[in-house]
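To assess whether the prediction recovers the assembly geometry, we first specified each molecular entity separately, as shown.
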Amino acid sequence: AAGVIQSPRHLIKEKRETATLKCYPIPRHDTVYWYQQGPGQDPQFLISFYEKMQSDKGSIPDRFSAQQFSDYHSELNMSSLELGDSALYFCASSWNLAESYEQYFGPGTRLTVT
Amino acid sequence: SQQGEEDPQALSIQEGENATMNCSYKTSINNLQWYRQNSGRGLVHLILIRSNEREKHSGRLRVTLDTSKKSSSLLITASRAADTASYFCATDAETSGSRLTFGEGTQLTVNP
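The predicted structure of the complete assembly is given in tokenized form:
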């Protein structure tokens, strides 16, 4: 079965640079979520989109923005990167219209800011 | 603040034994999900239990939910070395839509 695809899998950036993370949800899934997991921590919700509209916003810095495109893929844009942004970034998708709320996670993008 | 707290934080058992992990949460929920994460890798969805369900089974997994105590447990029977991982519970609260709030996780080590 198709899973959530994230790219790139690894990314190394310097402070103050920008990064773009991509997420391709499971086909037919209508909701995409972004989470950030710092070293040794549990994942923290950043933002979500339902049918291409922002549906919820969590602890996402103003330096970050995200959108969902017409083909349902989503991108997380991160600017003015800081050392503290080094983390695993997960995308998850679910099919909420079908009231199936299981969130399936991608493999994550490991971002290292130096 | 953390929605969920997991107990124990670390658990070490022998292959073939059962492993029980507990999770507590603070607010009313719609669903509770359990995930497994191998070191620094992706989160694998294990099972979802709805707030109106009390118990659910999937293979060697048994999940219980007690909404009056705001707690859940995950039982893995006949554990295998391959079950070694971190296990997280995650809830979506009634008031916050479907975003997940994770517990701190239990690190399970199954010794061969």
